[in-house]
Amino acid sequence: DAGVIQSPRHEVTEMGQEVTLRCKPISGHDYLFWYRQTMMRGLELLIYFNNNVPIDDSGMPEDRFSAKMPNASFSTLKIQPSEPRDSAVYFCASSTPTGLGNTIYFGEGSWLTVV
Amino acid sequence: QKEVEQDPGPLSVPEGAIVSLNCTYSNSAFQYFMWYRQYSRKGPELLMYTYSSGNKEDGRFTAQVDKSSKYISLFIRDSQPSDSATYLCASRYNQGGKLIFGQGTELSVKP
């Protein structure tokens, strides 16, 4: 089975540009999570969805960040305008509430560098 | 204060050593506790999962949760170079809810 699929895997962009990260969760999973990982702050939850509805976006750093889930098989995380401090690895993850020991499956990550 | 605290290390041990990784958490409402392993340039993958207090063993790995002291532990017996990775503890309130991670401990097992 395909896991969580993220794109792009790597992105280098200039400050001020719009960045869109994409995620396809595992089919049948009804929870989708966006995490950000940096050396300084570790793995932080930005937002999560249940059945395509945003449940908790308290981790979204500021208005420059937005996330959508238009259907069960696709989600985007957008940063506009991007800043150098947004450089990080962005992970998408999905799960079912009672799936295999509450397993949350992570994608390979999108490595973002803003210069 | 972060809800889940973990010493980032790094931790370096010789092959065959017993490794002890630890976390503390602050919210007594946490019910589910996990350990994730993350290899370099990869996403985290679930290693162990426990519900409430107690021990769970899986091969060379043992996870322990002590809710009275809000302490989470992972023990690795007969450590191997292939165990070299970052280990992240995580907790959540309920099934399906958000998962809060510790900082992660970088482990290196030397041959």
Sum up the structure in keywords.
heterodimer; A: 115 residues; mainly beta; 7-stranded mixed sheet; 4-stranded antiparallel sheet; 54% strand; globular; B: 111 residues; 6-stranded mixed sheet; 5-stranded antiparallel sheet; 11 strands; 56% strand
Q: What low-confidence regions of chain B span 5 or more consecutive residues with pLDDT below 50?
A: none
Distinct helical segment count of chain A: 0
Strand content of chain A: over 45%
The end-to-end distance of chain B, rounded to whole angstroms, is 37 Å
Average pLDDT over all residues of chain A: 92
Give the ordered list of helices and strands of chain B. EEEEEEEEEEE
Biggest sheet descriptor of chain B: 6 strands, mixed
Binned strand content of chain B: over 45%
Radius of gyration of chain B: 13 Å
Largest interface: A-B, 27 and 21 residues
Major sheet description of chain A: 7 strands, mixed
Distance between the termini of chain A: 36 Å
Going by helix content, strand content and strand pairing, the class of chain A is: mainly beta
- By DSSP (H or I, 4+ residues per run), the number of helices of chain B equals 0
Average pLDDT rating of chain B: 92
State the helicity of chain B in percent bands: under 10%
Q: Helicity range of the residues of chain A?
A: under 10%
Q: Secondary-structure element sequence of chain A?
A: EEEEEEEEEEE
